[in-house]
Structure formats: C-alpha cells, structure tokens
Specification:
The complex is a heterodimer of chains A (about 250) and B (about 240).
Chain A: E1 8-15, H1 18-23, E2 29-37, E3 40-47, H2 55-76, H3 82-103, E4 115-121, E5 124-130, E6 134-139, E7 144-147, H4 167-170, E8 172-176, E9 180-186, H5 191-194, E10 195-196, E11 202-203, H6 205-216, H7 222-230, H8 232-235, E12 242-249
Antiparallel strand pairs in A: 1-12, 2-3, 3-4, 4-5, 5-8, 6-7, 6-9, 9-12, 10-11
Chain B: H1 3-17, H2 20-24, E1 35-43, H3 50-67, H4 70-75, E2 76-84, E3 87-96, H5 113-133, E4 142-147, H6 156-167, E5 172-177, H7 183-189, E6 195-196, H8 202-216
Parallel strand pairs in B: 1-2, 1-4, 4-5, 5-6
Antiparallel strand pairs in B: 2-3
Helix pairs in contact in B: 3-8, 5-6
Classes of the chains: A alpha+beta (about 250), B alpha/beta (about 240).
C-alpha cells in the first residue's frame, strides 16, 4: 500500500507458558495498543497472577481498559500532562477492576494482574508500571533504556499487583524525553532472557536488536513473533507465560 | 532422545517461514533462578519400622518425580535435615533436584525438633546470602517439616524465629503431622495450619510436594506463598 496511516508499526504477542499448559491454566498475559494520533502510540502489557482464579480476565481488562482510557483522554482533551494522565489511567483501571470484582461478588485479588502502560511519540516516552514487567526504549543513538522499572522484590515470582492494597506506593511513573527509534514492552516471563539481571536488569542488547530489526521489516507479522515465543529455545528457558510487544517508528 | 531431528525440523521450518531473526536473538546469560527447600524430617525412635520405610520410599518418589521436569531439576534445591539419634543432622546440604539422590534414613533417639528448625532457618538465610553474592535470582525458600511426635528439646525460640521469618516474608514454613504427632504444638510452631498425613501415604505426599515445587517457577504465588490443596495424602 502506498499510504501509511501511521508512523508506528506494532507487533504484539502473548503466549502461554509450558508450565501453564501442564496445569491447563491458559495464558494469563495480555497486551493491547492503539494510536491516539498517527505519531502517538498507547500500549500496555499485563501479567495475571498464576494463583488468582480469574487472572486472565484481570490482565485483559487492565491492558485494554488502560489503553482505551489514555487514548480517549488524549483525543478528548487538547492539553494534558502525560504523567498526570498515566497516573489517572492507573487509578481508573484499578477502579474498573474493583467494579468488576464487586459486580461478580468476588474479591479483587481474584483478578490480580500487573500493568505496564506507555505513551510513546517520536520525541519521548511516558511510562507507568505496577509490577515486574519491562518497558525498553530504543533511542535514536542506538542505546537501550529501561523505563519505569519498579523496585525488584526479593523473590522472583512475587510482586505487587494493581489489585494490591499497596499498589499506589508501588506505582512507578517516568518520563524520558529522547528521540525514539522503537520501544519494547514485556512481561516478567521473558525477564530471564531479555534482561541482564546480574547487572541491575539492564536490557540485553543482543536480545532486543534482532527482534526490533525484525519488527521493522515491512512483511513482519505477529504470527512470526508468536512462533518465536512458542519455540523450544524460549520454552526450555522459561515455563511462564510470555508477552512481547514491539513498536517501531518509520 | 528426539532433540536432534526436532532441532533440524525447527531450523527447516524457520527457513521456510522466514524466521531467520529468531536465530540471531541471543538470550541474556543469567544464572538459573533457584528455589531452596529444606526437608526437615523426624527420624526419632517412634518413626521406626513401617513409618521410616514409607518415608524413605516417599523420598525416592520425590527424586523420581522432580527429575522428570528439566526446569525444576535445575531450579529447585533440596537439603535434608533430620532430627533423632545424635540431634539435628544435615544429611544433605543444598543440591539441585537434578543432583539430588534420596538417602535411606534410619530411626532412633529422641525428637530435637527445636534444634532442627533453628538449623534449617540458618541454612536458608545462608543460602539466600550465597544467591545474592552470586547474582542468582531466587524464589521464596520453603521449609517442610514432617513429624510423628513432639519436640523433646526447647522449641519456643524456634517458633519465635519462624513467626518472625514468616512476618518478614523470609521463608514459607509448612508442617505435616504423621499419626501420633502433637498437632497442638505444631500449631504453635507453624504460622500456617499444619496438615495431617493420612496413614503412611508418604509417597503421595512427596509426589504432591514435588509437583508444588515444579509449579513455583511457572507462575506467581500471589502475595502469600500458598500450597495447592493437598490431595490424596491428607486426612481431614
């Protein structure tokens, strides 16, 4: 096609982990994205707690609602501070989860999920997060930067959820005014593969570069990303659900 | 082993599907994350005869079951502390489940449970220190106590330490009482409600424990470490 409606090319995939297949829990990760303007991407990834009964619903609601909320505010209001908007969006998403739990008369903990929410433009990235996902910005100078990294909990499989009482104090919101080349969002299932955990969780460059290069290709499709995440190479390293969302600017 | 043809097939598939990028993606070389588990086993005289035989069979079943899971074999680290003849004894320091070889335990002596609990808590603290020093990520450690009696030594300090460790999320402590166990004292020692073994179903207990451990790395345990409901071995 000769006309491009958007400056962003986005590929996302959430894949069930082998441990979840064994336990027949299904994929409890979710992702969502939309464009608020041709150059303004809103994206989210969410990781439902394995121990929560309706984690898949929780993560789906968190990802889709938060993205729609931000896009709606960006389209409706002429001037909003992105950091304030993200803070509002996290709160509104938390309220939405509480509303669903109340309606169905079950504890909000049944919907336990993390949430990483991002607004990205060519001139900067704004990110908010509760939990242990990652937002990685590929800057125009080629370097990779982790944004809105929460404080890591002592234990690998324990974190604060958006449904937790202490979610507000665990919520990290950050702004990175930089020339953006591409961004990646991931859930913690990929952390062991994508981040150098012995080096403070720095993004592992040889992991991201080929993937972002692939995402840039004109014929790249999410199915290929799914196949990669389902491949034996990934499955032998992690048995958790994995989500990867790649967005590149043309 | 089917690994070689499968890899070939996968490469072929990648070429056809244009997935060449997948071969270029390099993974970070993080050490495998660990989940430390101390088995705290009563080997006092009252465990003699059929109970100790059943316990040994259970340990063999644990080794067999966890060994079938490649990720758990690399991630779960098992240590065994017994309490009976000669006091608390570290029969085995931390070994990954893949290296773990089930010992054959013998019964005799009294029930120095307090000493054994203190030792297990120290071992867990030291292990976490090792993990941190080596940049190894880890899951919340477990201590799993099995007894058919009651402590014959002082256990107040051990109970206080467990309560403190649980409060600060330092460890998850679970207790199982075999027929004859003083459940009232176990309730004072363990923050979580102790479970009761049905007869001598040690094999069922250890297969369930292995499967609970295998699950740890697959998904989150929420804010409170909790075990899946005991099935097939606990009496109500």
């Amino acid at each position: 096609m000769g006309v491009s409606l958007s400056d962003w090319k986005v590929l996302g995939a959430s894949v069930e982990g082998s441990g979840h297949r064994r336990d027949s829990t299904g994929c409890q990760d979710s992702h969502a994205w939309t464009l608020a303007a041709p150059d303004t991407l809103v994206a989210a990834v969410a990781d439902g707690a394995g121990s929560a009964r309706r984690a898949a619903e929780g993560s789906t609601l968190a990802a889709t609602f938060s993205v729609e909320y931000v896009a709606w505010r960006l389209c409706e209001h002429e001037r909003v501070d992105p950091l304030e908007l993200l803070s509002d969006a996290m709160g509104a998403t938390r309220s939405q989860l509480a509303r669903l739990a109340r309606r169905d008369r079950h504890p909000i903990g049944d919907l336990a999920t993390t949430l990483a929410l991002v607004i990205a433009s060519p001139d900067g990235v704004w990110a908010a997060q509760v939990g242990d996902g990652s937002v990685v910005v590929h800057q125009l100078d080629g370097s990779l930067l982790a944004v809105a990294d929460g404080e890591r909990e002592e234990y690998l499989n324990e974190t604060t959820f958006l449904t937790s009482k202490s979610w507000r104090s665990a919520c990290v919101i950050e702004e990175v005014p930089t020339r953006v080349e591409s961004i990646a969002l991931l859930t913690d299932g990929l952390g062991l593969l994508a981040l150098d955990l012995t080096d403070g969780g720095r993004p592992h460059v040889p992991f991201f570069k080929p993937l972002l290069g692939f995402a840039r290709a004109e014929d790249a499709c999410p199915t290929e990303l799914e196949r990669f995440l389902e491949s034996d190479r990934v499955a032998t390293r992690t048995d958790d659900d994995v989500t990867l969302l790649l967005a590149t600017l043309s | 082993m089917v690994a070689i043809p499968r890899q070939d097939a996968l490469d072929e598939y990648r070429r056809e599907e244009g997935m060449s990028f997948a071969d270029e993606v390099e993974f970070a070389s993080n050490p495998e994350p660990r989940c430390a588990c101390v088995l705290l086993l009563d080997t006092s005289a009252s465990m003699g005869g059929r109970p100790i035989t059943a316990l040994n069979e259970g340990l063999r079943a644990f080794q067999a079951d966890i060994g079938t899971d490649t990720l758990a074999s690399r991630r779960v680290e098992v240590a065994i502390v017994t309490f009976g003849q000669g006091g608390a004894q570290t029969v085995q320091g931390f070994l990954t489940a893949g290296e773990f070889v089930s010992p054959t335990l013998a019964a005799g002596g009294s029930t120095p449970m307090g000493e054994a609990i203190t030792r297990a808590l120290d071992m867990v603290e030291n292990r976490k220190r090792d993990y941190r020093a080596n940049g190894v990520a880890y899951y919340r450690p477990w201590i799993f106590l099995i007894t058919d009696g009651e402590p014959t030594d002082a256990w107040d300090d051990a109970a206080t330490r467990i309560a403190e460790a649980e409060e600060s999320n330092g460890v998850a402590f679970f207790a199982v009482g075999v027929e004859g166990a003083n459940m009232d004292i176990l309730r004072q020692i363990s923050v979580r409600e102790p479970m009761k073994l049905d007869g001598l179903k040690f094999t069922e207990l250890f297969v369930w424990l292995s499967q609970s451990q295998r699950r740890v790395s697959a998904s989150r345990v929420g804010e409170q470490a909790a075990l899946p409901p005991p099935s097939g071995w606990a009496s109500v």
